[in-house]
Design goal:
By secondary structure, this protein is an alpha/beta fold. 45% of the residues lie in helices and 23% in strands. It has 13 helices and 13 strands. Strands 9-8-13-12-11-10 form a 6-stranded mixed β-sheet. Helix 3 links the parallel strand 2 and strand 3. The radius of gyration is 29 Å and the shape is elongated. The structure holds zinc ion (ZN).
């Protein structure tokens, strides 16, 4: 009897396990990308033996979890034959190497020509090296600091260069601060302070978990389905010690380590967003920032439409309701302050429907004011849209009064968010 019940129990376990695995959702693909090869961490690691040890540690963690990674090389940091040996270890382990420029310049502080020259120097150096390694090619470029350009002109210039040189920008969806743990980790290790190392290791894991969960939620909400991810890590010593634990956690969370080509084939990566800003962010943050700008623009266009409709039915109360309580109205005849005073001014100048004519407003340009906010982990991301300035052309026509000439001019409107709505805080009409 006893024997039978054990068998039954075993059978049940097998059935339950089988059922669970059949119902298990597909594992989410994740690309591991590793920046600042051969060894990150600024000038912390000058000893060749230490650089070798770090590289072996990183590669061991990747191998243990069968991860095909992309490593991004700062060619200016490949200084010695030993450094080339380190890069060969990455290739021998089956990883792909991409370009991360020659000197890791900050695009915001660098002109487009100088920046592109540095990226090209990195590409040329790495391409020469890879040609000697089974004729491999440079396919990917990673923007240093994830900074893709602070003006439209710079964004366009670097994208044209990347297309021309057959490099694809390798985006990041999970940006994090793993590099921030390197200095304290190395200091603790050099002092043999194992308690402090343990504390820093725990913090490293916790910080990455928070970022990963957060970006997962942002990407999924944005695209409406579980999205593949690209995690940014750095080739540093704290990583060599912590990656195994991190990768184990990622597997437990339902991730499957995938190759670059598989992840990049997802629609989410098809068209790189035209986000222009002074700081670099992950892909979801860029897309969310652009969506917020578009939403703000749509809301303000609707507001201006409501306003001209009100004007055209002679409803000055509704027309002026979109001005802030303390709005300033500037015109060639002077300054009017406060919504009530603006309304009174309009009533004096346009006493009836006949005097008002038909208003049309044509938007010339819209500029959002969008800064940077900082998360609890001290990580920067684009803020919501705080304000909008709009240059527009206005026109007052009097189709029913042939003796009256059409009036027209320009206006500059400054709007700010007030709760869920937008309101005009300044209006300079001329
Ligand atoms: Zn970097």
């Amino acid at each position: 009897m006893r024997r039978t019940s054990i068998l039954t129990a075993l059978l049940l376990v097998i059935l339950v396990t089988g059922a669970a695995s059949a119902a298990e959702p597909a594992r989410r693909p994740l690309l591991i990308s590793v920046d600042d090869l051969p060894v990150a961490g600024g000038g912390l690691h000058t000893d060749p033996g230490e650089r070798e040890l770090i590289t072996r540690g990183l590669l061991a963690a990747l191998a243990k979890h069968h991860i095909p990674a992309v490593g991004l090389v700062i060619w200016g940091n490949v200084k010695t034959p030993d450094d080339r040996v380190l890069l060969r270890r990455w290739l021998a382990a089956g990883h792909e190497l991409g370009n991360h420029s020659a000197s890791h310049l900050d695009f915001t502080k660098t002109g487009a020509d100088a920046y592109i020259a540095d990226v090209e120097a990195g590409r040329t150096g790495l391409a020469g090296f890879l040609a000697g390694e089974d004729d491999r090619k440079v396919r990917f470029f990673r923007f240093p600091f994830l900074n893709e350009g602070d003006t439209e002109a710079k964004l366009d210039a670097v994208r044209a260069y990347l297309t021309h040189s057959a490099q694809r920008s390798l985006p990041v969806t999970i940006d994090d601060q793993d590099w921030d743990f390197e200095k304290p980790w190395v200091e603790a290790r050099r002092k043999n302070d194992s308690k402090e190392m343990e504390r820093i290791g725990d913090e490293y894991q916790e910080a990455l978990h928070v970022e990963i969960r957060d970006q997962e939620a942002r990407g999924d909400r944005l695209l409406g389905h579980p999205t593949p991810q690209i995690l940014l890590l750095h080739a540093n010593e704290v990583g060599a010690a912590q990656w195994d634990r991190l990768f184990t956690w990622l597997e437990g969370r339902g991730y499957r380590f995938a190759k670059a080509d598989e992840v990049l084939a997802d629609d989410a990566f098809k068209d790189p967003p035209r986000y222009v800003g002074e700081a670099g962010f992950g892909l979801w943050d860029r897309l969310i920032a652009l969506k917020r700008t578009q939403d703000a623009r749509t809301a303000v266009e609707a507001l201006l439409k409501t306003q001209s409709d009100a004007w055209n039915r002679g409803d000055l109360d509704t027309f002026t309701s979109v001005y802030a309580e303390d709005a300033s109205f500037l015109s060639p005849t002077g300054l009017t302050q406060g919504r009530q005073k603006v309304l009174e001014r309009y009533r004096r100048r346009y006493p009836d429907r006949k005097a008002m004519g038909t208003l049309s407003l044509e938007i010339i340009e819209v500029r959002p004011a969008q800064g940077i906010e900082v998360t609890a982990l001290n990580d920067a991301r684009p803020s919501r849209v705080q304000g909008l300035s709009i240059a527009a052309h206005w026109r007052l026509a009097y189709p029913d009064q042939p003796e009256k000439k059409t009036a027209e001019g320009l206006t500059l409107l400054v709007l700010r968010r007030h709760g869920d709505f937008w309101e005009i805080v300044e209006d300079a009409s001329m």
